[in-house]
Amino acid sequence: MSALILETRGLSKHFGGLRAVSDISLQVAPREIHAIIGPNGAGKSTMVNLLSGHLRPSSGQVIFNGRDITGLAPNQVSHLGVGRSFQRTNIFPSFSCLENCLLAAQSRMKNSFRFFRRSDSYPLVRERAEQALQACGLSSKGHSTASSMSYGEQRQLEIGMVLATEPSFLLLDEPMAGMGKEESSRVVELLAELSRDYSLVLVEHDMDAVFSIAKTLTVMVNGQMLASGPLERVRNDPAVQEAYLGDGEEQF
Amino acid sequence: MELSTILIQTLNGLQYGLLLFLIASGLTLIFGIMHIINLAHGALYMVGAYLMYWLSGLVDNFFLAILLAVPLAALLGVLIERFLIQALYRREHLDQVLMTFGLIMVIDSLRSIVWGNDVHSVAIPAVLSGSIQLTETLDYPLYRLFISAVCAAIALAMYLVLQRSRLGMIIRGGSSNREMVQCLGIDIRLIYTLVFAAGAALTAFAGMIAAPVSSVYPGMGNQILIIAFVVVVIGGLGSIRGAFLGALLVGLTATWGAVLVPQYAGMAVYVLMAVVLLFKPRGLFA
Amino acid sequence: MHALPRPIQLLLALLLLLMAAYPLFGAMLAGEQHDFFLQQLTSIMILAIVALGLDLLVGVSGMVSLASAAFFGMAGYALVLFAPEYAALSIWIALPLCLGVSALAALLMGVLIIRTSGIFFIMVTIAFSQMLYYLFHDASFAGGSDGAYLFMKPEVAIAGVQLLDLENRTTLFYVVLASLGLLFVLLRTFLRAPFGRVLLGIKENEQRVRAMGFNPLFYKLAAFVIAGTIAGYAGMLSATQYGFVSPGQLSWQMSAHILVMVILGGMGSLFGPILGAFAFEGLHHWFASLTPHWELPMGVVVIAMVLLLPRGIAGLLLQLAQRESSKTTQAPLAGTIKQEAEQ
């Protein structure tokens, strides 16, 4: 197989008459940040859900590491090494930070039908959870209840939980959504760091952030792919310029 | 088995099914539109039957008694919705289960205080007391045909209201999009009260017209509640069409079950439900 | 699941001690009524066991089941129907039999319904338990609506040497008390272990649990079977205590009573449902002594509880304990309570 880690071929999703995603073919190489951008309603979220198995495509294929994963359930996709974060903060609010990551790390055991030993007494689980907390910059907050933390910290935890599942590939749905300047620059730093170890697909609204870290770019409009390829080339694509970036000031 | 027996049992099954539809449609409407599970729905059926027993003794006229009892049942529905159910709209299903279970206990003991724990009967009105000859060998009680006809007419009317009228549109809109309806300047709370009262009146009405054939007894509400659940589960939660089909299926299964496997008649409809769930885990029309 | 706050640990230990001491001093305190109280306490603790199991579903995993009585009743029937008429059944047969029957019933029911949720799940659990109710109500082999009798209680013996005499009411009291205590500890252990963490996760956010690579259905099914088996164990104890089973024990109203115990006591805490069983039965006896229409005040209590005390007795106690300890240290439970209060 090729050296691609993720590839989609003619991926489409229709909801009744609405073509939310139509005929998207994109390619992601290892250890790069591939960003998917587009205005609201462009089908970015649907795209993420198709890749993570939360939605079943109407047609087309998703190839991950040379394997056809089209139609697999989210838990199966997760076990192949795809770690997904959510646009809306999606954590366990009454758990502490560490407990959130412990549960995520625990998912890598063969199963969790273990009834007697405390979950944090499994050395591998604990180690992974703590590493993940460190990687997302929350080591010092391990025992804070998730719901009591700031919004930005919760977004960091969201990424930490993904890392604790030991993925080889990250699928991040607007990790900077709703963040202030300072908070989002911290996440940009984090992402740049992660891209050294992981391949990464990033769906984002924040243009500055995308242009500063992404290596390749896919632009979606109305469910269709306008352009896809190396950042500079796509940025200078006349169609993109006209349809998207031209009136970008208003939209973003 | 004789042909006339088959015909009679089928007619009985349809009559029971149509009656069940009145009860189940209220349940499924209240769920579909208000997202409320109402365990006290069966208790309202019982209240209907007892109101009938009480009023038909009082005014000595079956139809007048119904005319008086239906508004009373609707009023009871309004009171319950205003004072209890409204507190539940933003609560979990668990709280709805508990509160409406508490309501069953209250209604049941009030019934016991007011009307006692005896079994009563309600006379079939004279006009409807005969039988009519369907074939040469087959007589069928007029009153049962009356029940079927009334229930079928109500089902049709309900269909027309929900599909064709402005009110029906608002109701259907409310079930799919609460905010939208509110934005149109319609008081959704009024709609909810109306729907709940209609559901209460429907199930109580079913209790009233069933009273002469089923008699009037304390446990009748709880028994019918579970059968109505089975109907809604088979039909799919929130679907009126499903409730209609489910009610007929359950009515026929219960009636034929009593004929064919009298030993296990009580279980027949639940086996039907299990089979449906095996193939359609969310019911036929979910 | 965090450690319980100190005052609550003390309270529970005190209650356990009081219960354990009751048979020793009961005759002195209650006189003639001692035997009656002993039986009542035993039967309340049996209900508390069912409530404890139900909390694993309702409070821990977020599944509102109204089928617990079905498994309770089935296990009782299994014991009665399987026991020979004039000899005692060995507990080494009775126990696996009762647990096996209730576990199998829960597994079969669970497989059919575990994919559903919300109101649909509630309705289907009611409907299926009503099906089992009719099975025993209509069947002549089980004595129909009259119920059936167990003439000899199970025999607890090893190699012919009797270890416990279940005919003895005091012995049975201690067996039930020990069972309740051990099950409480066992379930708390489960909640700290990977299995329980997944269940707690499912209750808070099932979608995320799935995204992390778990298949929630297996864990929910396992919880359903465990709760059913616990109810079955209680059913065996109850049939042993009264020597009698009737279809009414499988009714959904009985399940609803258990659910009220769980909520009245405070769901998700495991100790709450135990307190809830005592509170519910206490109120029940008290109201019944005042009026034959005890359901009226009880119904009002249930409605008032939903409106005024959604976190139950346990929630109240935890809040009080919280207020105490927050003066000194910040306990980890603060977030839990706050979170729950917001929901």
Structure summarized in a few sentences:
The complex is a heterotrimer of chains A (252), B (286) and C (343). Chain B has 286 residues and is mainly alpha-helical.
Outline the biggest β-sheet of chain A: 6 strands, mixed
Strand order of the largest sheet of chain A: 7-8-9-4-10-11
Supply the CATH class of the largest domain in chain A: Alpha Beta
N-C termini distance of chain C: 18 Å
Q: What class would the helix/strand composition of chain A place it in?
A: alpha/beta
Structural class of chain C: mainly alpha
| Percent of residues in beta strands of chain A | 15-25%
The CATH superfamily of the largest domain in chain A is identified as: P-loop containing nucleotide triphosphate hydrolases
Strand content of chain C: under 5%
Largest sheet of chain C: 2 strands, antiparallel
How many alpha or pi helices of chain C? 13
Widest sheet of chain C: strand order?
A: 1-4
Count the DSSP helices of chain A: 10
Protein name (chain C): Amino acid/amide ABC transporter membrane protein 2, HAAT family
Main location (chain C): membrane
Organism (chain C): Pseudomonas borbori
Membrane topology (chain C): Multi-pass membrane protein
